[in-house]
Amino acid sequence: MLGLVQTQSVSPVFVGRIRELTDLDAALARANAGEPQALLVGGEAGVGKSRLLEEFLGRCRATGAVTATGGCVEMGCDGLPFAPVATVLRVLHRQLGDELATAAAGVEGELARLLPELGEATREAHNETGRARLFELTARLLERLAADRTLVVAIEDLHWADSSTRELLGYLFRSPHRARLVVIATYRSDDIHRRHPLRPFLAETDRMRVVRRIELRRFNRAEVHAQLAGINGTEPGPALVDRVFERSEGNAFFVEELARSIAKGCGSGLSESLRDLLLVRVEALTEDAQRVVRITAEGGSEVEYPLLAAVAGLGEEQLIEALRDAVGANILLPTADGDGYRFRHALVREAVVDDLLPGERSRLNRRYAEALEADPALVRADQRAARLASYWYHAHDPAKALPAVLAASVDARRRYAYAEQMRLLDRALELWEDTPPHIRQAQRPFDQVDVYPACGCDDEALSHLDLLAETVVAAHLSGERERALSIIKRALRALDDGVDALRAAWFWTQRGKLLEGLGRGDGWAELSRAQELVRGLPPSAVHAEVLAQVAGWCALHEPGPEAFSTAERAVELARLVGAEGTEAHARLTLGWLKVDSGDVADGLAEMAELCERVTEIGNVGVLGRCYVNYASALEGVGRSDQAVQAAIRGVEVVRRFGLSDARAWLYCNLAESLFSLGRWAEAEEAALSARRLAAGANPRAAAASRLTQLALARGELDTAERELAVSREHYGTHNPQPQYTIPTLRQTLSLAAARGRIQDARAALDEALAEGFPPGTQRHAWPLLLAAASAEADAGGLPVAAPDRAEVLGRIRLAARRLPGTVPVWQAYARLVDAELLRAEGRDTPGLWAEVVAAFEPLERPYQLATARFQWARALLASGADGEARQHAARPLALAHSAAERMGAGPLREGTQLLARRARLSLDETSDGDGQDPAEELGLTPRERDVLRLVAAGRSNRRIAEELFISPKTASVHVSNILAKLAVSNRGEAAALAHRLRLFAPEPAPAAPH
């Protein structure tokens, strides 16, 4: 008896796991140094994940760290939205009190969705931005709490996590960059079947460098020996160790169960089935204790004591005695907050649930539901709706389940748990036909005006189509676009367009957006159908939304008068029907189109006013787009400094509201404007920030495009080629927009020209001219025409460029004449393009370049100004060799060189240096110099100069050998040496560089045939 009294089912000695604890301690040390840590601990059920976590958290607390643990809660097949994160925040609130409230100051209403103790939740935004804001604010709260101390957040049972919890956890893994924070989560690896929702999450974390995976193996025989010694308090005999090790196969939990059973004298009478092994101790309990265990198992992974008391129907003393028996047998444990009970191990709960009869399960769920309806305070407010919905659903009572499920879906939407909302709505669709008609007609759960405006008013009874529409919205917002599309197809099949045109138009509009997002088209056919359906109908919110979507589509794909008039009508209609969000979107589109059409002052004023308005009222649905478009519009008219200020302001605002995708776009805009201002190092930093933040394909492509432009200007051609490929891949081909296609073609053209592939450059120009430049695209078209004209001028001496040169130059000139120059920056570009075309024809003059310089001097375009000054100096030096020409060329050349040095414009810097050496000019703007021959400065020997001259003329190695009376092999060696000294990768680039730097006089053109 003495040995039996001392036996315990849990070893007081922590066994094994030395390597794993070493890894965890190292992560804690890095967190203490300010480097956030993210860890995932996986292993089969019962292998010891919770015990390892308990040991680690104890070590953390011993170092002064604050720890908080939350567990994912299983309710049938669903997890409760954000349950573990809410528990973590609740534990921190209990530990830190006012400090947490202070850290959440200003955003309590948003964070109250996770922690109701912070106050009343603000009105939710029914779009992706509200959810992103909640994620960002949660990350910022943890960062603040971990600023001066180490904070360890632990999430258990991730295999039960709802989609929202998984997505929030993924955000927390990658978001903090500087905080003393450790986020650690455990999951049951043997539950992760091929279709388990955690599998893609784990695959995604494997690609994150910041996340470390730790997989727990089973114990070996020596570790089982140590575990048994700890459990029994004495050294176990070899036979006992062999027996337990063989039966448990090293699973720590099974070791405990077997040790307990053997100590109680069960001998070898255990069933071979796992369920019987798990149930053997349950069956040894008293009748009341067994009953309480069964009731607790059906209530969820955790059950509050008051709720358990209401369902059990036992007297208080009787219930407490039964719970004491179950806790003493290590079957149940008090919850972390001390308010209820949970199973010590989920496997036991699963075995108990599996042992219940179907009718028994339904009866227990009904009792839980009835108890909760009678007294809602029995569970926490943030879990009440989901728990009630689950209980009634599993009670198989559609009349009670449908209202509960719908109410839970609204609660999930309010908390931005869109995946959980979608699953609840799927259940509602499943219950719909089995629910009595009078119950269905009584349902009015949704705010139809905000989410699905087709109904027109909130007091209209819910229809099956409304339910489908709400499911579409939830599926779209949760990223389940395929699911949303299938529901839309189902709704459109059921709709009679002639009878219910508004609903049909709404569904067609959503279908268009989804197809565009899925890369299956541009969405225009669907928008056109929606337009047809609302045409001639009385004004409505749906009609306003359709017009706003059409205006936005046209502004991006086919800007012009039609887009302008559509945007005006959308603004008027949205204002008439009181659709404030739709009106803001339409006004923004209209402001953009005004700027592009030449009404710059009014357009920019409209956009600026809208930015302030939506910031003031916190309209997150349009706020991000406001700042993104406003900064872009300023850049588009050459006001780059104002654009930088607007983008920086926008970054601050959208960060406060948690809009990470809008931040990515704003950093892209910031990179573009900083490049224009010649602040290239800052531009690169902004582009890389955009890349880190971007979730969608288009902002990732835009970030790559900014990096491509920087690399081209710096002369880093391999980097430019790599980034251009990334940009093309993310933009794709399914949804061409001029704002994407024209810059991509410009960069393709510039890269080909820099590589010496003039025919490839012309092919890119041909593609751009074939597509045409719609109204409002001059901001992209002028730089493309400049790149084409400069490429032709630089290739003037290349024989391969001679054919069709006149025709190409004529096409560039014609396209330039058709482009508007409504603002000074584009007027200056027009002069620069004309000057480059004349240079390509050999007809440029110093006076022409002086005019270009004068046009750019008052503008915020230092790179273009430096380029024009360089060409001015070149033209002056070419006009005469007298001292006066050299004197006039010295200052613009020195200024061009200084600007190139400051910006890091490699090719321009090299060009100025070589021109200065050839003209024997000093670049310090003060004195003449006696520089060396440029070819000598490049380190070329006389023979290599001869070879390079023939390479530039397009000769093959064999022809070079023949003309110089050397062997082809020797010619090949000379070419290789030249490529290395010029730091280029092929003959074409070498020839292009030689012509650009005017190392040799161009060969005379062949005589025209008689």
From TrEMBL:
Domain HTH luxR-type: 933-998
InterPro entries: AAA_16, P-loop_NTPase, Sig_transdc_resp-reg_C-effctor, TPR-like_helical_dom_sf, Tscrpt_reg_LuxR_C, WH-like_DNA-bd_sf
Keywords, in A-Z order: ATP-binding, Coiled coil, Nucleotide-binding
Database matches in CDD domains: LuxR_C_like (cd06170)
Parts forming coiled coils: 710-771
Name of the protein: AAA family ATPase
Originating species: Streptomyces silvisoli
